[in-house]
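request received
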Amino acid sequence: MTDADEMFRYRSDKELMRFIPHRLAHEKKEIDEMIKMINSRIDKKESINWAITLKGIDVIIGTVGFVKINEAHLRAEIGYMLHTPYHKQGIAAEATRRVIDYGFDVMKLHSIEAIVNHENMLSRKVLENLGFTNDAYFRDYLYHAGKFVDANVYSLIKKDE
Ligand SMILES: CC(C)(COP(=O)(O)OP(=O)(O)OC[C@H]1O[C@@H](n2cnc3c(N)ncnc32)[C@H](O)[C@@H]1OP(=O)(O)O)[C@@H](O)C(=O)NCCC(=O)NCCS
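response:
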């Protein structure tokens, strides 16, 4: 809960949230509710999220984690977000790489997927740099901000590593 103020700063940033299929935060209490939900989903093993920080500085600058875990198929969906001042420094890639390793080595996943708004070129680049394959393109796949948008589904399979 101590991360709520910082999280609110970037979750209320309209530009940063442009491709995120969650509501833009308007009040800090929405973030408090979100953190409670994240913690409860971790307890139930439905998803898992980590805070991203700079080394040695205990301030959240983003999150990365598995937003959905499909236990039956040893597959999980990865998601990430980084506060804008920290973009273009390789931080998102480094944090996502660590979570991928955790997924394969500790959670024993077989594959990891990412579902990305087709127009989210920065996110698609992160995935491609990390070795993900663009497996599918779906029309009108996501309902976001009042309209349907196309999406790409990327995946990384353990044996491809
Ligand atoms: C998607 C997102 C996390 C990408 O952030 P990012 O900072 O561009 O990603 P990376 O960490 O991979 O950084 C890569 C850039 O840093 C540069 N860089 C600088 N120093 C670097 C270093 N030491 N190591 C690696 N890359 C470095 C790279 O050259 C690259 O720049 P380029 O794109 O001009 O070639 C960010 O745009 C974001 O938070 N967007 C909003 C949320 C979102 O859309 N999430 C995804 C939903 S599917």
